[in-house]
Amino acid sequence: MTGVAAARYAGARVHRVEDGRLLTGAGTFVDDVTRPGMLHACFVRSPIARARIAGIDTSEALALPGVHAVFVAADLNPDVREAWFTLTGPDMPDTPRPPLAEDEVRFVGDPVALVVADSRYIAEDAIELVVVDYDPLPALADYAVADGSDELVHANFPGNVAAEFAGQAQEQVDEVFASAAQVVGESIFQQSYTAVPIETRGLVVEWSAGSGELTIWAATQAPHEVRAFCSRLLGLPEQRIRVVMRDTGGGFGQKVVPLREDMCLMLAARKVPTALKWIEDRRENLMAAGQARHEHGLARVALDDDGAILAMRLDYVEDVGAYPTPSPLTAGMAVGFLFPGPYRVPSATYSMKLVFSNTSGRTAYRGPWMFETLAREVLLDIAARRTGVDPVDLRRRNLLRTDELPYANPNGMPYDHMSPLETFEHAVDLLGYDAFREEQRAVREQGRYLGVGTASYVEPTTSAQGYYATEGATIRIEPSGKVNVYVAGGSTGNSLETTAVQLTADALGVDIDDVATIQGDTAVTPFGAGTGGSRSGSMIAGAVAETAGILRQKLVALAAHRLEAAEEDIEITGSQAFVRGAPAAGVSVAELASIAYFRPHALPPGVGAGLEASARYAAKSPMIWANATHVCTCEVDVVTGAVTLLRYIVSEDCGPMINPNVVEGQIAGGTVQGIGGALMEQLAYDDDGNPLSTTFLDYLLPTATEVPTIEYGHVETPSPGPGGYKGVGEGGAIGATPAVMNAVADALAPFGVDVTRLPVTPAAIVALLEEAAVRG
Question: If you average pLDDT over every residue of the chain, what do you get?
Fold first, then answer.
């Protein structure tokens, strides 16, 4: 394109533009929003996992001074349209979910009534005065017990099966297993845990009866989806709904799609005289905001005499809780599709079953299909030990190389533009694998047990499917020459503001300090799918490039006319346009903007006034593939079961990095979540479905004392997408858990222990060692 300059900011460690306000406490989160006369909402929640609702008495709560209303299902649920609501619109299959529990409660924390009062303090008091008559029913807290049971979580789902699906080539794969030299199989179990964003869920909803308009301030990852969801829910035209997202303190998938409490606030807003606020407390978040990861699967691999993979199979069962949101079918199928991973696998198949239980509903969580990596990588380590092969050598024999691509895995995934073996070797080299093995052998003689684990994965990012496939941008060069870029985006800790500013500054050739971004307000930003699916970097890059290209052409035309030069000789950089070779005789972007807005008579023929453009990028590839290898070393105290992580290395191929600080921050955040899932986090329930971890005394999170310094390696294979960029947001949470699990298992290998269940707590390790001692 004429006038394109070399990138100054993309690839640089630019300081985050968000940090100034966030570090000084000047951010605006939902709980910072105050409206005149605002009322506050609080939910009455079921204290038992399953029961019929025989009656609800709200009279005492309504008599409490300061209480304005108590809504039950009969007040809100009839307003719900027949279509059920999912991430991709009303035509996707989904599990019906009433805003408030109607005839039956289905988990502890199920919202039964909504109290509206002058303050949260009064509302909290009032919920204790709502009397609900429960008729208890047998609870199905364990999804494995619920599978096939005559007791049903939902009457219209026999056997509590939400969905089943089987991959192709079942008989062909079984034949390979029957004739293979070596077959290794193991059942892998992963516990329930959850996103735990630093900011819990929350909404402020304000209805203006006079104008017929609804304004929502939301803690969300997808403001335009909140608007579309609300439009479908209430039957309001989208242009009468405005969703404002300022700062959001983390989402990790939990805040992509509105959940039932959000539905209640939207429905109740038109029944109260002023704005209505609900802020979830931490106990509610751990009890009712949704679970993830709870699943198991029988993973099997067939090998030849040389350790080459011949076939793989996964029979997978997933707990979807009572009200999964969105439909878990897509992520569940992805587990099967991706199970072969970044390996050379000639034949593979899978089966999948999603099962309801009387626990909080399954929600999306960073890398929602990650069980495919957990099951595969743990299985490969077990296979290596059982066949007497080093696990690194086994992977070297089977990982795909860049020169083998494109390559379709046996389930049809079209791999390209990635570097599995090269990234693996980079990570292993960073560790110094051979030296570690020597140290491991030496310290075992002293009674110390070190272990090393790896996990390699391939991740589809930037999907071209459905509404994820496009992203828009509007860029306005103001009369002063300053630049505003409008994208759907939103600040959830992933630095999309910084990303948009860097990309826009480069695309227009202006100083980065001259660029600001407006995001998260549906009244002014183009429609966009929001944060999810590791899509934001690539899609924003595409949208900015499309839009800035229009403006840059106009700037070049203006500058050529002003400088009496040919357009092909114009360069723009540092907010200055000049004739190539004569930078001192240029004209500023500010002056060109002044001409565009205030001196239309000075415009060149055919060039309109103003400097504003909107455009939309459509993804060209079905998906963009990122890959990485995680390497973890640890020491296990075989007396106490304590695990100490020693080194942690991530080598990631996410293409060129827009901002290495942001990329590494995303990797680190996901990695720490994966470490927590491996060692400590658990949403535990007793046999009656009572949650046992609704405070941070019981739900343990990793802190700086448990997490080692994360070391980063970068392998760069450009994608076919804009700028060669790939997604990076989810990978850390995918690779970390199996890497830690394998490191612990490697440390315990002298005792004949296989680690196949999560979390790997000290108590679990001691139990495994005791069992091994009994076996002799």
Answer: 95
Three-state secondary structure readout of 53-77 = EEEEECHHHHHCCCEEEEECHHHHH
Per-residue pLDDT of 632-644, as tens digits, reads: 999 999 999 999 9
3-state class (DSSP) for residue 325? strand
CA diameter of the chain: 93
Whose CA is closest to 611, among 472, 481, 473, 471?
481
Closest CA to 478 of 502, 508, 521, 506: 508
Q: How far is the C-alpha of 260 from the C-alpha of 135, rounded, in Å?
A: 23
Sign of the CA dihedral running 253, 255, 258, 261: positive
For residue 706, which of 628, 629, 632 has the smallest C-alpha distance? 632
Ordered strands of the 612-618 beta sheet: 515-519, 483-487, 470-477, 612-618
Residue 92: pLDDT above 60? no
Q: Which two tokens stand for residue 506?
A: 């480069």
Find all residues with CB under 8 Å of 11, minimum gap 6, and list them.
Answer: 656, 657, 658, 659, 660
Task: Classify residue 278 by its DSSP letter.
Answer: E
Sequence length of the chain is 776
Beta partners for residue 354, in sequence order: 163, 318
> In b/e form, how buried is each residue of 28-57, taking b as 16+ CB within 10 angstroms?
ebbbebeeeebbbbbbbbbebbbbebeebe
Give the pairing type, strands 710-714 and 643-653. parallel
| pLDDT on residue 2 | 45
Q: Which helix (H) or strand (E) holds 134?
A: strand 131-136
What integer pLDDT is reported at residue 7 of this predicted model? 72
* Both structure tokens of 351: 């089966």
Alpha carbons 461 and 459: distance in angstroms, whole number: 6
Query: Residues 441-471, buried b or exposed e (16+ Cβ, 10 A)?
Result: eeeeeeeebbbbbbbbbbbbbbbbeebbbbb
515-519 vs 483-487, strand pairing mode:
parallel
Cis peptide bond upstream of 328, omega within 30:
no
Q: How far is it, in rounded angstroms, from Cα 710 to Cα 144?
A: 37
| Residue 88 and residue 466 in contact, taking contact as beta carbons nearer than 8 Å | yes
- 149-206: pLDDT as tens digits: 999 999 999 999 999 999 999 999 999 999 999 999 999 999 999 999 999 999 999 9
What SS3 state is found at 265? helix
CB distance 485 to 504 below 8 Å: yes
> In terms of Cα–Cα distance, which of 112, 119, 99 is closest to 41?
119
Q: Which of 311, 357, 319, 316 has the alpha carbon at shortest distance from 334?
A: 316
Rounded to 5°, the CA angle 624-541-254 comes to 65
